[in-house]
């Protein structure tokens, strides 16, 4: 009998945020065990809910959402996105430069597939959000990972980027604020990246989904405002800042030098058209979300829940012998380092499984973010302070006796 196997294009595609460790966690949950799930940034799961007015606007427009809309998205939502970036200093865009997608993830895949031919390269940070590497590989391209320097607050290593640019390099990905490290890049670092992109004629993919989740008044600079000399595609959405990940509503904005990429932009347009349109009801959340008072600010200020949870996570991790952590400046994650000699860790998937089975805490191992050594893990600090302290108690107990066999 003929058997059907998965495509070879998937041979080197990994997404361990939902990988084998999660599968074991699901089995444990099915058996009635209580698991603290710190593997995904899923705010509603931790009772961080969307603003009421966002939900009300979606409900009020359900009847108007029955038909397909324009393949780029409904006009009021795209106009609101344009106005949002105008307030950030980006002036050279209009509604035709905006594409709304079923989450920004869909648009990442579209933009990468529309760009790459077999063997083309994209520079992607290490550690990365694994969708970028997966999308590149599935499009027939090669993901070339440049190092982010933990000793320098996880800022990208400019010399490492320079050393990895070849004639096959077409684009560079910048994830800022960063997932998984929580770093917010300095303007000086961003300028050096922009200068390299202009010099080597690279497209910039700016993943800025966490641009509203920043702590300690650290300055954030949208990459799109820093150059008109090359093409910049900015990705963003409402999943995290407005706590509606299940709505799957995100966007990308094309800015900068479009003349060098007219044919490529036609490719993006073709692919956006082929999926007809994004989820229409959720698009009615955009205009309300981007205008008026921003409730996320209540969570990220010093008295806010996310700020307090960030501090608990950072402080408690650094109190554990053998663990160190750079303080996150943005996003919802920390990326602590493990003294692997102390704990004899050679396999971080096994470490994650052992932590799950022994303490019922689910995290993601560092190699799941294309980090090359088994010496890091990502933790989501979304649980409320009491629950988060319970998580840290369990992690501390685990490391107090752990030695990998």
Spatial order of the strands forming the largest sheet:
2-9-8-7-6-3-4-5
CATH superfamily of the largest domain: Type I PLP-dependent aspartate aminotransferase-like (Major domain)
Give, in order, the helices and strands: HEHHEHEHEEHEHEEEHHHHHEEEHHEEEH
Radius of gyration: 21 Å
Number of domains: 2
Shape: globular
* Total count of strands: 15
Mean pLDDT: 95
- The N- and C-terminal alpha carbons lie at a distance of 42 Å
Discrete helix count:
15
> Regions with pLDDT < 50 over 5+ consecutive residues?
none
CATH top level label of the largest domain: Alpha Beta
Report on this structure:
Helix content is 37%, strand content 16%. The protein is α/β, with parallel strands linked by helices and 405 residues long. It folds into two domains: 8-49 and 297-401, Aspartate Aminotransferase, domain 1, CATH 3.90.1150.10; 52-290, Aspartate Aminotransferase, domain 2. It has an eight-stranded mixed sheet with strand order 2-9-8-7-6-3-4-5. A three-stranded antiparallel sheet has the order 11-15-14. A two-stranded parallel sheet has the order 1-13. Helix 4 runs parallel beside helix 5 (130-138), helix 4 (103-115) crosses helix 8 and helix 12 (305-318) runs parallel beside helix 15. 47% of the residues are buried. The model has no long low-confidence stretch (mean pLDDT 95).
Question: What's the structural blueprint in terms of helices and strands?
Answer:
Elements: H1 20-30, E1 36-37, H2 52-60, H3 75-87, E2 98-102, H4 103-115, E3 121-126, H5 130-138, E4 142-149, E5 155-156, H6 158-163, E6 169-175, H7 187-199, E7 203-207, E8 231-237, E9 249-256, H8 262-274, H9 280-283, H10 286-290, H11 296-300, H12 305-318, E10 323-324, E11 333-334, E12 337-338, H13 340-343, H14 348-359, E13 361-362, E14 364-365, E15 377-380, H15 385-401
Parallel strand pairs: 1-13, 3-4, 3-6, 6-7, 7-8
Antiparallel strand pairs: 2-9, 4-5, 8-9, 10-12, 11-15, 14-15
Helix pairs in contact: 4-5, 4-8, 12-15
């Amino acid at each position: 009998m003929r058997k059907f196997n998965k495509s070879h294009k998937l041979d080197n595609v990994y997404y361990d945020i939902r990988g084998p460790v999660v599968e074991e966690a699901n089995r444990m949950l099915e058996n009635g065990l209580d698991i603290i799930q710190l593997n995904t940034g899923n705010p509603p799961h931790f009772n961080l809910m969307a603003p009421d007015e966002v939900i009300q606007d979606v409900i009020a427009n359900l009847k108007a959402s029955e038909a397909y809309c324009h393949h780029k998205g409904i006009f009021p939502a795209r106009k609101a996105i344009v106005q949002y970036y105008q307030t950030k200093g980006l002036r050279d865009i209009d509604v035709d430069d905006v594409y709304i997608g079923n989450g920004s993830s869909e648009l990442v895949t579209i933009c990468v597939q529309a760009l790459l031919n077999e063997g083309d390269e994209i520079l992607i940070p290490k550690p990365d959000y694994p969708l970028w590497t997966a999308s590149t590989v599935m499009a027939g391209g090669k993901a070339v990972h440049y190092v982010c320097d933990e000793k320098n607050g996880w800022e990208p290593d400019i010399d490492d980027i320079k050393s990895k640019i070849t004639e096959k390099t077409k684009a560079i990905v910048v994830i800022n604020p960063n997932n998984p490290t929580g770093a917010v890049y300095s303007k000086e670092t961003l300028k050096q990246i922009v200068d390299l992109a202009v010099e080597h004629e690279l497209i910039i993919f700016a993943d800025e989904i966490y641009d509203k989740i920043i702590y300690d008044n650290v300055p954030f600079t949208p990459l799109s405002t820093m150059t008109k000399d090359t093409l910049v595609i900015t990705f963003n959405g409402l999943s995290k800042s407005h706590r509606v990940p299940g709505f799957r509503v995100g966007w990308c904005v094309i800015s900068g030098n479009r003349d060098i990429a007219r044919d490529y932009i036609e490719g993006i347009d073709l692919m956006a058209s082929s999926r007809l349109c994004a989820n229409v009801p959720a698009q009615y959340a955009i205009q309300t979300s981007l205008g008026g008072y921003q409730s996320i600010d209540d969570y990220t200020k010093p008295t806010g829940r996310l700020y307090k949870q960030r501090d608990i996570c950072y402080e408690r991790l650094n109190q554990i012998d053998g663990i160190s952590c750079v303080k996150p400046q943005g996003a919802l994650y920390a990326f602590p380092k493990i003294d692997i000699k102390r704990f004899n860790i050679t396999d971080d998937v096994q470490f994650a499984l052992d932590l799950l089975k022994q303490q019922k805490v689910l995290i993601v191992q560092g190699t799941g973010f294309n980090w090359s050594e088994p010496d890091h893990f990502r933790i989501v600090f979304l649980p409320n302070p009491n629950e988060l302290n319970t998580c840290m108690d369990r992690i501390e107990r685990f490391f107090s006796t752990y030695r990998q066999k």
